[in-house]
Task: inverse folding
């Protein structure tokens, strides 16, 4: 783990803003999914990947009505219809 020496305060809604330099270094654009883990007394943020809301696959994922769905599930849904 690399320490940055940067501290941020929680706002009244419990939010923390990640510094722009860190977002740029980690390629975190607006809307990037983030996973949140707790390990002892640490909160760990990890850049997530787009995954299918149905099967969890991360390949060939498209957004449909705000949900991530893979091409295999799209095909399966069409075949069920």
Result:
């Amino acid at each position: 783990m690399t320490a940055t020496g940067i501290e941020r305060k929680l706002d009244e809604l419990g939010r923390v803003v990640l510094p722009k330099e860190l977002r740029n270094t980690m390629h975190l654009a607006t809307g990037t999914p983030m996973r949140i883990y707790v390990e002892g007394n640490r909160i760990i943020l990890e850049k997530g990947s787009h995954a299918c809301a149905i099967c969890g696959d991360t390949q060939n994922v498209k957004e449909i009505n705000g949900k991530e769905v893979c091409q295999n599930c799209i095909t399966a849904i069409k075949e069920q219809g």
Remarks:
- The longest strand covers residues 34-39.
- Strands lie at 34-39, 42-47, 61-64, 67-70.
- The mean pLDDT is 88.
- DSSP finds two helices and four strands in the chain.
